[in-house]
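Final report, closing paragraph on structural work. Over the funding period we assembled a curated collection of sequence-structure pairs, and we close with a single example.
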Amino acid sequence: MNSRDMLELVDVLASEKNVAKDVVFGVLELALASAVKRARFPGEDADIVVRVDRTTGEFSAVRRWLVVPDEEGLQEPDHQEMYSDIHDEFPDLQPGDYVER
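Its predicted structure, as stored:
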């Protein structure tokens, strides 16, 4: 499916189901994130975020980790990065922010 087809599908679904396009885009992003997770990270509990451009239909997928304070340690290694481990590469991020790659 190309980007134009995807945008047309969103229009049709939003119209047929009488819901806002943003709702359809949200569900689409969740579905794509699930597919990317299964394809790229089988067996892992990766946190994947997909963003669909509402104008072009192009999408991007990134894996993200929550930045946690060093004193908390990693409670969920598949979902977290310690602040000291990412600070040099991402100096603007603080605990509570997300690292996306």
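The longest helix spans residues 21-40. The two ends are 25 Å apart (CA to CA). We thank the funder for supporting this effort.
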